[in-house]
Amino acid sequence: MKIRELTNQQKDFLKRILEVEDLPEGEDISAFLQLKGYTLYECINCGKLIFHDNYEFWNLSECCDDNSKLTDKGLICEVCYSKSFENLKDWVFFRPTWIKDVDFGKGV
What we know:
This protein is an alpha+beta fold. Helices cover 29% and strands 17% of the residues.
């Protein structure tokens, strides 16, 4: 996909994240981001474009940050991950580190 195929909102989002004034309209998005040190992914479930700056995921399709998950099969965007079995399993078996076992039989 070429940069010129993006919407104006997506182009402005890229400019803001990359801190550049202009974008090379004829260049491939993936190659351009790679030159800047970013990695472009596509959600394996819905196809949204997500790029990573070695710190944070950015959702290019919706112009926002994203809490994507990298899996063995590929990247899952935040929305698809929230609907996944893996996420449900994490919530069901989540045990905060601050929880302590209490023995009510001992008394005070």
